[in-house]
Amino acid sequence: MIDLYTIDDTVLNQTMRLLKREAMSRGWRATLPSPSSIHIFLVRSDGKKIHSYGPVPPTTSFAAAHTSTNKYVSYQQIKEADIPQLATTTVRNDNMQAGVDFLNLHKMVVVKPVDGAHGNGITVGVKNQQMLEKAVDYALSSSNARYSVLLQQQYPHKKLYDLRILCIDYQFVAAIYRVPAAVIGDGKHTIEELILAENQGDARGVAYMSELATIDLDLSRTYLKETINNIPVQDEIVEVLGIANYGAGGQTIDATDSIPVWLRELAELASKKLELPMAGIDFLSCAPPKSTSTKAELDAVFIEANKAPSLAIHVQPTHGTSRDVVKAYFDYLAKM
Questions:
Q1: CA dihedral of residues 48, 51, 55, 56 (deg, nearest 10)
Q2: How many CB atoms lie under 10 A from the CB of residue 200?
Q3: In which element (H, E) is residue 226 found?
């Protein structure tokens, strides 16, 4: 085993660096089997041993972890809890008719891997069979599933906000909302040139290792198509990806104080229903959240749950107040 405190921070991802600092501040022993591992073997000050898988506590069962990985199983469980969500189904690549029927019913759908993460393999705005077949192949290329992908009704509002609500010990702790990667026009350069310039900035780098992730140019070309060669006017903000995931180059805005009580309770209910004591619960809303927002004003729907949510996005949001969620996590480990 390797002493975590002897490992240089540059080897660790953002969340692991934060876990290292918190364990050190508490005087807990922490070891890893290898420098790149996220298996942390902790020994508390009272001698109790705890095995944490990054931010996943030992109280997360294998079954619950597997459920959160399979988005369709999660959908079925959340459906039982009567939490609002979009119509969802699965389709096999050797039986596209079911997918076509679902598309005809909802007019526009999102296609994603059943077991995807970090925004990989997702296609939004699918509105015909040709796009559907291409999106299914793309989703399967980012999935461990051999045949089946997830189809979800596209959120019907023109403007959407991607909310991540963090629950620890089944209780609301913090929240952010994520905005898709974007560039700012200067009236001189094409969108593609602006993306290349943005990626050269000091803040951009490897996802979850750097302050911001590099914007994937190939995905931007797929999303923007020929408009990637347009020259936006001075100060025009252009979204260059159809997903708001931080790992795909998006930014984060702290929203902890803006989540209304009823939405906090829905997130807590989802974490309990999915049996995830550490959970990143994702919702879409049609407006930025306010503490006074009503259900009708936000029209919030559950999208998915993450069993191993990034803690760094709450400690180090691109904009807004830092939240000490790592302390909250260790407080939970301390009372186990």
A1: -110
A2: 9
A3: none
* Long-range contacts at 326-330 (CB < 8 A, ≥ 24 apart): 326/18, 326/19, 326/21, 326/22, 327/22, 328/168, 328/173, 329/19, 329/22, 329/55, 329/57, 329/168, 329/278, 330/22, 330/23, 330/26
Task: Look at residues 57, 62, 52 and name the one whose alpha carbon lies nearest to residue 32.
Answer: 52
d(CA 96, CA 19): 45
- Quote the DSSP letter at residue 34: S
Q: Is the CB of residue 89 less than 8 Å from the CB of residue 98?
A: yes
For residues 191 and 184, the answer to whether their CB atoms sit within 8 Å is no
pTM, rounded to two decimals: 0.86
β pairing state of 204-205 and 212-213: parallel
pLDDT per position as a tens digit, 206-249: 777 777 788 888 888 888 888 999 999 999 989 888 777 777 78
The SS3 of residue 90 is: strand
Token representation of residue 263: 């939405």
Burial of 131 (0-12, 13-18, 19+ CB in 10 A): middle
Alpha carbon distance 269, 263 (integer Å): 10
Judge contact between 65 and 47, C-beta under 8 A: no
At residue 25, the 3 state secondary structure works out as helix
| Dist CA 273 CA 81 (whole Å) | 7
Q: Nearest Cα to 233, choosing from 191, 200, 199?
A: 191
284, 160 contact by CB (below 8 A)? yes
* 285 SS3 class: strand
- 331 secondary structure, DSSP code: H
Q: Is 80 exposed, middle or buried (0-12, 13-18, 19+ CB in 10 A)?
A: exposed
Q: pLDDT (tens digit, 9 = 90+) per residue, 185-214?
A: 999 999 999 999 989 888 888 777 777 788
Per DSSP, the three-state class of 172 is strand
Q: How far apart are CA 280 and CA 69, in angstroms?
A: 12
| Structure token digits, residue 220 | 């931007």
CA distance 70 to 58: 20
Distance of alpha carbon 72 from alpha carbon 66, whole angstroms? 11
